[in-house]
Amino acid sequence: MKEIRVGFLMSYDYKLLKNSIPLVYAEADSITIALDENLRTWSGEKFEVEDSFFEWLKSFDTKDKISIYRDNFYNAGLNAMENEVRERKMLATKMGIGNWLIQIDSDEYFVDFKKFTEELKRRNKYLKDPKKNQIQIAGYYVNLYKYTEDGILYISEPRNQKFATNYPGYVTGRNTKKRVIYIPNIVIHECLSRSEAEIRTKFSNWGHSHQVDIEGFLEKWRKIDVSNYEKFEDLFYLEPEKWKSLSYVKGTSISEISRNLNYPDLIPSRWHIQSKNFGQWFKFLFK
């Protein structure tokens, strides 16, 4: 026990796993990929997977760390978010409680996964009785917004996201509503840096599908480019004010974008993270 166990959710954007899996492979003790046995999304839509992906996965997995967990993750009586939570809990149980359970979506790319796992191992005491001492470990998202001819627009201010837990009592997505420990680790999120058709697919099939005004969002998204992005604000697809502004970085691939981002400016200050962690410690002190 006390292993670093990584879980991925495999769906319509499965090809992005070719970017995300290699970034965590070396430090993971095991990787479990959840795939609906009927190839359905949380909204019940069908998708297809090319055989070549499984061939790539087999050739890449030189240390025999990767397994595919096939199950029925779609329940017609639940909405998309409820199906998401259900799948995440099923996947976490399969991964094995008593270990660090890290769930990563296919469009999430860790910049320094080794550092992230080192932070987890420093806190192995929370694995002794995980149900009694439930915590979440959060890093910080750099949300990619829109590709341009020679670069990308991204949300200027990183936002925290929960990635790991010792006990998977998920309530909404990966959020267990338990104590959060924030660490200075960046994850690039290829959130909206897709074609319009791909954005429509994403918004129609993910956990928040019932909350998104797709047409309203896309109307603004289409207007924005490298020449005018500084004029736009309030860009989030759920609560617009949570994404205040855009920044720009050159790069035509994820690896190039990752090299060109200025991480010291993106990572919140040490004081800010310590303050957040103290607040979480105090909030759950008597719970």
From TrEMBL:
It comes from the Bacteria. This is Glycosyltransferase. It comes from Christiangramia salexigens.
